[in-house]
Specification:
Shape: globular
Oligomer: single chain
Strand order of the largest sheet: 3-6-2-1-9-11-12-10
CATH topology of the largest domain: Carbamate kinase
Helix content: 25-40%
CATH architecture of the largest domain: 3-Layer(aba) Sandwich
Structural class: alpha/beta
Radius of gyration: 23 Å
Number of domains: 2
Largest sheet: 8 strands, mixed
Bound molecules: aspartic acid, magnesium ion
């Protein structure tokens, strides 16, 4: 008899306390039949990972990465053990494993390790014995047996990589929202849950600020074409399928809108317009480990030009200090900072074949008296940097204009 294999992942809020762990355990055993096997990946309880990190930072401003992985990986070890214990209490057989125990081998880049291989033997053996297998998310082990973690939100990656390694039939990501929405329902109450979304669109949404799934996990899902069902752990309702293509691709130009308030803008005024200047600025910024996103350089009329760029808000202080130093060195003018910005993005694979989408976006913003400070585009997205105070209004107007209320 060939078994169907289901990989399910439960996020931190789905296992935040003992009641929720019990509820999830019931849900898992309800899915378990004689005909299927279940592998469950769990995140740490609630905000455990944040709390562990905060403790370390109280002891040491710059804690060593290896020790952080030892620490941060323990959250998932607790939740997988508790889940197995809860399932056993319901009379079903279960066994919990850490990433190391099921042979999730990674490289040595602590705190953001990449999975190299997954040894499936131990998992398969436990499944063949009829056990429900519970695996700690977010972690692996190096060839030297040092524990590593896969970057924040990494349990999603564990689930997708296991689905690939074990050749699963279904990969379900359980979370505290009902699926992927056209935009943040907290901003637009008419936001609609999408039935499907493509890997490319989801990747773009994740990197532009939608926080439902870890971007790296989508990359892996895309590479190996593993469809993912994102759904709520609190209801039986179907969620959103993330797939390669869907039949609606031709008539939907915009699938979703994101709003990201995590960036800040730096402007270096009066930069001498000479070869090598931009290289100098961005080499120095990258040396301090800050990643720059949007860059805009104005046209120069006077052999001087303004250069603006965005950085993560958390890095603003050090990036601003560095920008000031460079400005002096290259004899530029003053340096300005602006924390009050938001990136509004519209995303849709249909943009590849539709024209006029950008014009419609800019027109809508103009009609709502929203000034555009910077613009960037990718093949399937358009982003505008605007004043943060106007971002909710802008998202609402765009949601309406692109008819996302009626998808
Ligand atoms: N617990 C880890 C985090 O909060 C991993 C995860 O939840 O996926 O980032
Ligand atoms: Mg988490």
């Amino acid at each position: 008899m060939s078994h169907e294999l289901i990989v399910q992942k439960y996020g931190g809020s789905s296992v935040a306390n003992l009641e929720r762990i019990q509820a999830v355990a019931k849900r898992i055993v309800a899915t378990k039949t004689a005909k299927n096997n279940i592998v469950v990946v769990v995140s740490a309880l609630g905000d455990t990972t944040d709390e562990l990190e905060a403790m370390a930072l109280k002891l040491n401003e710059d804690p060593p990465d290896r020790e952080m992985d030892m620490l941060m990986s323990t959250g998932e070890q607790i939740s997988c053990a508790l889940m197995a214990i809860a399932i056993k209490a319901l009379g079903y057989d279960a066994i919990s494993f850490t990433g190391a125990q099921v042979g999730i081998k990674t490289d040595r880049s602590h705190t953001k390790a990449r999975i190299r291989t997954i040894e499936g033997k131990r998992t398969k053996k436990a499944l063949a014995e009829g056990k429900i297998v519970i695996i700690a998310g977010y972690q692996g082990v190096t060839h030297n047996n040092d524990i590593t973690t896969l970057g924040r939100g990494g349990s999603d990656l564990t689930a997708v990589a296991l689905a690939k390694a074990l050749n699963a039939d279904v990969c379900e990501i359980y979370t505290d929202v009902a699926g992927i929405y056209t935009t943040d329902p907290r901003i637009v109450k008419e936001a609609k849950k999408l039935k499907t979304i493509t890997f490319d669109e989801m990747l773009e949404m994740a990197s532009l600020g939608a926080q439902v799934m870890q971007a790296r996990s989508i990359e892996v899902a895309k590479r190996f074409n593993i469809p993912i069902h994102v759904r709520s752990s609190f209801s039986k309702e179907e969620g959103t399928m993330i797939v390669k293509d869907d039949d609606k691709l031709e008539d939907i130009s915009v699938r979703g809108i994101t709003c990201n308030k995590s960036e800040a803008k730096i402007t270096i005024c009066q930069v001498p317009d000479q070869p090598g200047v931009a290289a100098k600025i961005f080499t120095e910024i990258s040396k301090i480990g800050v990643s720059v996103d949007t860059i805009v350089q104005n046209v120069s009329h006077t052999r001087h030009t303004d250069i603006s760029f965005t950085v993560p808000k958390v890095d603003l202080t050090k990036a601003f200090a560095t920008a000031k130093k460079i400005a002096q060195k290259i004899k530029a003018g003053e340096v300005l900072e602006d924390r009050n910005i938001a990136r509004i993005s519209i995303i849709g694979s249909g943009m590849r074949s539709h024209t006029g989408i950008a014009a419609k976006m800019f027109q809508t913003l103009a009609e709502n008296k929203v000034n555009i400070e910077m613009i960037t585009t990718s093949e399937i997205s358009i982003s505008c940097i605007i004043n943060q105070d106007l971002s909710d209004k802008a998202v609402k107007a765009l949601h309406k204009e692109f008819n996302l209320e009626s998808v």
